[in-house]
Amino acid sequence: MPIIAPSLLAADFANLSNAIDIVENSQADWYHLDVMDGVFVPNISFGLPVISSLQKHKKKVFDVHLMIVQPERYIKDFKNVGTDILTVHYEASTHLHRTIGAIKEEGMKAGVALNPHTPVSLLKDTLADIDLVCLMSVNPGFGGQKFIEHTYNKISELKRMAQEVNPNLFIEIDGGVGLGNAKQLVDAGANVLVAGSSVFGAQDPIATVAALKNV
Ligand SMILES: O=C(CO)[C@@H](O)[C@H](O)COP(=O)(O)O
Ligand SMILES: [Co+2]
């Protein structure tokens, strides 16, 4: 069964306690928290103070997706607000190997996200040290976008690479994921599905999470 990580970007920010209830009372496994700085991506979402407030109410895992420049500057800060898995973008990380090490030194799992245009082969020399690869299946910055079909090829290639050096790798798909493509993504090798609008935009978010979990 895939890990389901609802993205709070699609939740009602005036009613975040409802979003917490949905994650905690459903078969969701992780909170996916999209942090955007308006520089790496053309949008600004939320940051440390909001995540700190959520921390007091959560029991499940915080999967933080940093869409910011110089993510290495904030590793300790995200640890301090309860982050379990910290994902930085390949494209924003000049010294990726050092950043991965620094995340792990803080006791978090280390993730690397790839934009749709970034080939998975670029992770050849770091894959053994990474806990999670987040394949962006939309251009980062916004929820509710159309899934990019080429992602299936990237999943298969990454799965092949991981089988050799890191068979427990989390292969996370982020963007445009819903009931229409979840099974095909899992069949291709994904084991973590991020779902924003397909969960929080659904009539029954808890039932939608259950359906995604049981594809
Ligand atoms: O990181 C991002 C967008 O940049 C995602 O996590 C979105 O929040 C996913 O939203 P949906 O495509 O599922 O609506
Ligand atoms: Co994300």
UniProtKB/TrEMBL annotation:
It holds the Pfam family Ribul_P_3_epim. Substrate binds at S7, H65, G141, F142, G143, G144, D174, G175, G176, G196, S197. Binds 1 divalent metal cation per subunit. GO terms for cellular component: cytoplasm. Catalyzes the reversible epimerization of D-ribulose 5-phosphate to D-xylulose 5-phosphate. Belongs to the ribulose-phosphate 3-epimerase family. This is Ribulose-phosphate 3-epimerase. The lineage of its organism: Bacteria, Pseudomonadati, Bacteroidota, Flavobacteriia, Flavobacteriales.
